[in-house]
Amino acid sequence: MLIDTHSHLDFPDFASDLDGVLARAEDAGVTRIITIGTSLESSRRALVIAETHPQVFAVVGVHPNSASEAPADFITELRELARHPKVAAIGETGLDYHRLPGALAAGEEPGRETAEDAEIILANHAEKALQASVFEQQLELAAELGLNVVIHERDAWDDTLALLKPYAGRLRAVFHCFGKSPQHARQLLDDGHLVSFTGIVTFKNAQEAHATAAWIPAHCFMVETDCPFLAPVPFRGKRCEPAHTRQIAERIALLRGETLESVAASATANAEAFFRLSR
Questions:
Q1: What is the pTM of this model?
Q2: What is the domain extent for residue 212?
Q3: Number of domains in the chain
Q4: pLDDT at 122
């Protein structure tokens, strides 16, 4: 029995065959699925899917790359969505500096930026500040409602941990799509947080993800697809779907020298506790 703890079933990729996708997941032993919102609109769609399908639960939130599109009072609607009984957490939220407005042009000397460089610096600072504000509001909401949070972090490790630190003991977080080293993972586990592995752990060159999956204590990880993205080997290049959670768990079992049943039991128990799912 497996739980896909991070999917995007509301994306257009699944519009034409969602029932088939869910049936294939069940055939593969994936009995429950968490579908994750990335904006208010996406969160609404995720909740409709969760209401319609008993094996699906929703997580509602605003992704950092959607922060600029969120209305100023987005937290008001998000609060109402989050009170629904099929909402299992807040997210995905966090920080993503990978797609900031731009990089500085190469200057002749440090400190001699052009006017264009100065505009880029200001734009980057503004985007970081906006993402931080949207992130913090969602952390506050999660603490208020007694929910945990699903974290997206990309190229923003230190800032993400700094914003999350004051909430230690008030909520737990799962850093989804985790591909960093055991040393990074230790920083999270010290505050009671978890990590979740995607199909990246099946990739040949994902050495840090392999090391972390092999090392991490059994009570500290979950499995996910992040579908329709990151299809695991042997499905790379194709649409990912919840059924592929099995291949991810099989690879983790191989890395840990355990059985699939052992890894599935650990990951499922962790997901049930984190998302407060009944068996």
A1: 0.93
A2: 2-98+119-275
A3: 1
A4: 83
